[in-house]
Amino acid sequence: MAKLPVDQLLSRVEAVPVRDGVPDPLEARAVLGGAQPPQMTISSALELYWSLAREKTLEKSPDQIRRWRNPHIKAINNLIGVIGDVPIDQISHDDMQDFREWWLDRIADDGIKPHSANKDFTYIATVLRTVASRKRLGFVPPVAGLAFKEGKPGTRPPYSTEWIRTRLLPGLAGLNADARRIVLSMVNTGMRLSEAAALHPHHIDLTANVPHVLIRGEGRQLKSHTSEREIPLAGVSLEALREGGLSRYHDKPGLSATINKFLSQNGLQETPDHTIYGLRHSFEDRLLTAGVDERVRRDLMGHALGRQRYGEGGGLPAKLAAVQLVAL
Q1: Measured distance CA(190)–CA(192) in Å, rounded
Q2: Which of 122, 90, 117 shows the shortest CA–CA distance to 106?
Q3: Which listed residue, 81, 230, 249, 296, has the most CB atoms within 10 A of its CB?
Q4: Pair 231, 319: CB distance under 8 Å
Q5: Please, which residues bridge with residue 204 across strands?
Q6: How far lies 226's CA from each of 85, 189, 230, 277, 307, in Å?
Q7: How many angstroms from the chain centroid is the CA of residue 5?
């Protein structure tokens, strides 16, 4: 304030309210630049982060936004639980080491995998660094060098063809109708669970020469641009979609938990490591074993090709011929 032109400084002095001949001290501090800005705590930094990171949610559906926000909230709450809701510019290296020690105890005592701790570190670093940088707070949060060494990443094992045919398919009778149709629609398409649950009636064409589904980023964000694709229908997947729609789980949480719980409780997991996602891997393995061309396999799965795509790769007829080789 002292560097302002005299006329502007005087106008501020004159703006200070005077009561009974005495300038109001609170107003004076505010008008003359003496008031300190409110300290930004860890929790308030998270609230600010949502607006600063708004571009990350532009194409996401409400449920995708919820799932994107939740791990950030969990990580920040874990940090606050250990070091308190302190101003972010007062977070010390010792604070973060205390938080790391807290996670180390959980890994050692509760059998939690290091990956879970590392995810917390990543989300916390993203929030604090984004806020500090975008709001030009002039400090670097001490969030580097926290990660634990992780072992070999786990994989989602595919279901064997025999297990799907003899155990899984007959065992789905007790699952609710929409969830059952979603599972069956995945068997011969390799769709991700989220893709199957997001199908609207106009994404399912059963009257075309080649019945198929369209995977589109309509009202939600796809995993990648190559995820947008057309997949022909055959076998149990075609029959399931002839029965009706899948509207119950459109952009709603709980589908994965519902299905995996059903599989576990009814002895339909081939091993304890098997989840519903194993159907996608099984479909891909069957395509590979059948000798389906890599271009066609990647077009069906929504994977990047690793080189520029030319033409349509044979379109739906070529894809249908590949799917019919492995359809159950």
Answers
A1: 6
A2: 117
A3: 249
A4: yes
A5: 213
A6: 42, 15, 11, 19, 12
A7: 52
Distance of alpha carbon 283 from alpha carbon 270, whole angstroms: 15
Question: Which residues are CB-contacts of 241 (< 8 A; sequence separation ≥ 6)?
Answer: 181, 185, 204, 206, 211, 213, 233
Yes or no: say if 98 and 50 are a contact pair by the CB < 8 Å rule: no
Domain coordinates of the chain in residue numbers?
A: 42-134, 161-326
Please indicate whether residue 177 or residue 247 has the higher confidence score (pLDDT). 177
Kindly state the tokens that stand for 101: 């020690």
Residue 77 has pLDDT above 70, yes or no: yes
Q: What is the DSSP letter of 166?
A: I
Confidence of residue 49 (pLDDT cuts 50, 70, 90): very high
Phi-psi region of 169 (alpha: psi -120 to 50; beta: other; left: phi over 0): alpha
Superfamily of domain 161-326: Intergrase catalytic core (1.10.443.10)
If one counts every other C-beta atom within 10 angstroms of the C-beta of residue 152, the result is: 5
Q: Could you tell me the two tokens for 179? A: 């969830």
| Model confidence pLDDT, tens digit, residues 270-325 | 999 899 999 999 999 999 999 999 889 988 998 876 655 555 556 899 999 999 99
**What confidence category does residue 209 fall into, taking pLDDT thresholds of 50, 70 and 90?**
very high
Strands (E), 143-299: 204-205, 212-215, 229-232
Residue 215 · residue 227 · CB < 8 Å: yes
Across the range 179-191, mean pLDDT stands at 93
Amino acid at position 67, single letter? R
